[in-house]
């Protein structure tokens, strides 16, 4: 099939008003735009100007269908931009202020993935290649098509963003403050490029606060206090406002109250209509003032790639982005190695094979003996001097104890009497039973290993959505499904974390193997699962934490705020992971099982045999079957993925007041 090209689209606003709630009950409305009327012909290049707060960004969002029109109409190609967003999909291109291509990818590869989203699903590989070549040629990036986006100059990166939108040959191109961060020369080149696109037939609307290069536009649309105060040529605008420079127009607008310049503009329009009617008759009035007979453009339907294809596309893009990000690759490799080094150094002096005596409760005969002996000892330590004793057994014991002052002091401590009472009451086991290997070192090591993986997961996931939010919002306009995006993201993170966990576990295991070779000790096998089982559970826990990090990443609007949330994510995991606090039942156990991947990883990696002392049994009574922690971790990953999808959909609905048709 041939990819359809879009003719330029008209843009018509008629008495348009945009307002938002300015109170808790929604009764008070703040007007962002009021009584805005204009008509932009197909193929015109219009610059939108105005002081800060004039409504420029609101107009841009209204043109994109992201702001509902409170009153009046706003039509693109004769279609209502808010209510017919699906019909206009692919017909309106948008270049935001922030660049939206993955910075680690080469220009050509970034546009390849953009074409997978923006072009019709049935477009062939050859057609996509032709569209990419055409877009690169149109914006003049042939010499840097193999360079990474991050290595481009500001102007080149902006042209790459423009090329991504030109892939689908939109009929209307909206550029929102895209030149704000560029130097004057680069801005001039971008503005000339936009003028060329308009001459080629595309309707171009550029929102800008730079005034040096607006003379390349066919018309200026100037807003002030949320009202239209001018729509026409630059030269006429100077005369209308009575100034010599465009910068003085802003001063003139701000020096007058709301409504002054909009009234002057309506008076001028009325004069122009009167002149037109006198020269061409009443028929001209309908052409100038009305849009009732506005031509409705017939737009080619854009078929959206299916769910599976979207997942595959974004999964491949994610992995390719990781592979091209050299700094990110180095950091992703060093982090597990640093964690492994910290574990090995931290446990360098720990002996994992120390003997530990396991005690038991006294049997009846032993309790009788202890009771008798303690009675004699109590009498021996009750007096202050041996002279008060006779040749009885307590007296002989006291003679001995006087030669052992430290032992005498210990026996006189209140804790000694309490231990004896507890032993006689069968509440404290003190009788030697058997000798085992102390599980303390191994359990501490298992805990730290799992905690490291939880940290790795949260650090990997917390910034993944927020750093791509402009790109996600833009691709959402082209039919991206939130479910496809999030599933692809989680799957790609799972692959990355699998490599990192493998590096971490391998480094730690090799370190302990070397330690054993040199005569040292490694964690006791009887208290841990096998290396493969532990690694797989650590990996699933890391993926679950990364998926939870995506929830935070979807909630915050900057990576800085995401960083602040990381300690708030990790601390509850440690508290609920049964690594520090015992989790044996009650509310804590419920919270741990529902919210803590660390709990399940620790439970799966740890082996608590019958001989483990009670003070090391942090998990209480539980089923040691391995499938339970595996199933629980998979369930947590799925739940976090679903919550992220629903959260993104809710946010979009809250902003737009509706859902896009493609969910």
Which sequence of strands runs across the widest sheet?
A: 6-7-8-3-9-10
Sheet with the most strands, sense and barrel status: 6 strands, mixed
Count of extended strands: 12
- Taking all residues together, what is the mean pLDDT? 86
Poorly predicted runs: 1-5, 284-291, 659-663
Note the beta-strand portion.
Answer: 5-15%
Q: Give the helix level as a range of percent.
A: 40-55%
Please state the structural category: alpha/beta
What shape does the CA trace take?
Answer: elongated
Alpha carbon gyration radius: 37 Å
Number of distinct helices: 23
Number of domains: 3
End-to-end distance, in Å? 27 Å
Descriptive overview:
The protein is of the alpha/beta class. Helices cover 54% and strands 11% of the residues. The strands form 3 sheets. It has a 6-stranded mixed β-sheet with strand order 6-7-8-3-9-10, with helices on both faces.
Give the structure's gist in a few sentences.
By secondary structure, this protein is an alpha/beta fold. It is 54% helix and 11% strand. The two termini are 27 Å apart.
What's the SSE blueprint?
Layout: E1 11-21, E2 29-40, E3 45-49, H1 56-63, E4 71-76, E5 79-80, E6 92-95, H2 107-118, H3 125-139, H4 154-166, E7 172-176, H5 184-199, E8 203-207, E9 219-224, E10 227-232, H6 234-241, H7 246-255, H8 260-280, H9 283-289, H10 307-324, H11 326-346, E11 355-360, H12 364-382, H13 393-402, H14 405-412, H15 414-424, E12 431-437, H16 440-461, H17 469-477, H18 482-517, H19 531-555, H20 559-576, H21 586-595, H22 597-605, H23 627-656
Parallel strand pairs: 3-8, 3-9, 6-7, 7-8
Antiparallel strand pairs: 1-2, 1-4, 4-5, 9-10, 11-12
Helix pairs in contact: 2-3, 2-4, 2-10, 3-4, 4-5, 8-9, 10-18, 11-16, 11-18, 12-13, 16-19, 16-20, 16-22, 18-19, 18-23, 19-22, 19-23, 21-22, 22-23
